[in-house]
Amino acid sequence: MNRVDGADDRYVVGVDYGTLSGRALVVRVGDGAELGTAVHEYGDGVISTALPGGRALPPDWALQNPQDYRDVLRYAVPAAVSAAGVDPAAVVGIGIDFTACTVLPTLADGTPLCETPELRDRPHAWVKLWKHHAAQPHADRINALAHERAEPWIGRYGGKISAEWQYAKGLQLLEEDPEVYDRAERFIEAADWIVWQLCGTETRNVCTAGYKGILQDGQYPAKDFLTALNPNFGDFVAKLDGPLLPLGARAGSLTAQAAAWTGLPEGIAVAVGNVDAHVTAASAQAVQPGRLVAIMGTSTCHVVNSAEVAEVAGMCGVVDGGISPGAWGYEAGQSGVGDIFGWFVEHAAPAGIDSHERLTELAASQPVGAHGLIALDWWNGNRSLLVNHDLSGMIVGMTLATRPADIYRALLESTAYGTRMIIEAFVDAGVPVNDLVIAGGLTNNALLMQIYADVTRRPLNIIASSQGPALGSAIHAAVAAGEFPSIHEASQAMGRVHEAVYRPDPERARAYDALYAEYRALHDHFGRGGNDVMLRLRAIRNAAVETAATPHETPLEVVA
Length: 560
Fold this sequence. Notes:
Elements: E1 11-17, E2 21-28, E3 34-41, E4 63-64, H1 66-84, E5 91-98, E6 103-106, E7 127-128, H2 136-148, H3 166-176, H4 178-183, E8 186-189, H5 190-199, E9 204-205, H6 206-211, H7 223-229, H8 236-240, E10 244-245, E11 250-253, H9 256-262, E12 269-271, E13 274-275, H10 276-283, E14 291-296, E15 300-306, E16 317-320, E17 328-334, H11 338-347, H12 356-364, E18 374-376, E19 394-396, H13 404-428, E20 435-439, H14 446-456, E21 460-463, H15 468-480, H16 487-494, E22 497-502, H17 506-527, H18 533-548
Parallel strand pairs: 1-5, 5-12, 5-13, 9-10, 14-20, 20-21
Antiparallel strand pairs: 1-2, 2-3, 4-7, 6-8, 11-12, 14-15, 15-17, 16-17, 18-19, 21-22
Helix pairs in contact: 1-9, 2-3, 10-15, 12-13, 13-14, 14-17, 15-16
Pathway: Carbohydrate degradation; L-arabinose degradation via L-ribulose; D-xylulose 5-phosphate from L-arabinose (bacterial route): step 2/3
Protein name: Ribulokinase
GO molecular function: ribulokinase activity
């Protein structure tokens, strides 16, 4: 990236924390030009089988090391500034986004519990990544009690809160390791924690507080609701709560310590934290109502603004100001998308065609429906509309004539069907979806994009930046630094999108309508109680894994 700038140019840095790495991006305030970027891979990645010290973990766990997040600031940010060739003194702000719900227990000063020596071998002391799904039974209890008591907030979350969210993970923490729960003076989103590390000020952002923390109309779930779940759970909100700030606000100023990590000037603006999907709406010029953004990577998150509040069955939440101030922000998502395609290439495709490029080439030559397959896209559970992470994947229609490219295309199509289900749920509930903007790494697959256009019967706009979340965080940093009066003006000046790159083909769309009908039938049968075989198989698997563990390798014991 070569800079073309002047002496008066000012810059902002956006840092995007993903599942496996963090990326820093240097952006010019005036026009959103991306001048330099750098990536730092997490040293411990996703901790899913054993802690760094060797302690085994049960199925469906996904942890991370908070030091990896600090290292992104220490390595990726200075490298991005160097790559941009700009004077660090001209940087006026920094913003971050994070995968969510990613949460960690800390002391009152922000020290992660996993960094206290006596708790380092306790799994619940570590960061729980968004795709930690071991709290599904706790989520089930929360949902059942919410409906039993007719809690007013449950409808704002489509009737179910997720196992990925703060309350399910917090309840699991309490019931499986009450000592760690008691030591946790804060239970905080990683987005807010890293902002705390940057500016020394503890804050909460309205996005994660609303979507992941069940904050509605200024209220968290009542204490008597929490104690009905567990008598010792009544103080959970006190661990979550903190100074709440709107998106685009200034959380504080960069501390001397964080300036030393990043090489940026002490005292510059630090923007309030955000979620990777929601922040991308700004870089996609999609903060106005009706334009849905699908951020497609390992998973997909769908966000859209609306002028009105509505309850949409099976969606992830509706939050006032959750995407941008002045609108109701809606979220839905699919827990596995790119991860599904990657699984097939790595574990199921034979040598010689075990690449996305080759499989895509072979799959693209097929007419719609020629493979005779339908797949369910639940290989990492279902986030929307069923909100059940114990569901699993399925492929129907395989014969001795089925070939790897057939399966690969069926998997691509299954994720498009899942997105159409989400869009139709929004529209049926009165939330307009006029067009789609696609962001994320999967925009590079032209076959996948055309499938989505054909299946959804909508034109696809493509975000012009390959770093949508990082650019969105930089846009929020510009607002926090006072360079723009609002996210709307900053989005127009710094965001970019290519309009109607893929248009639906009427003939293919009609063929997909028939296949989509079959997908819906399978979706409802296996996901809405027609046959709970997936749940029974998950229980059998978990029991077998636990039985196979030796006494010294038992993953977790409840601490009395």
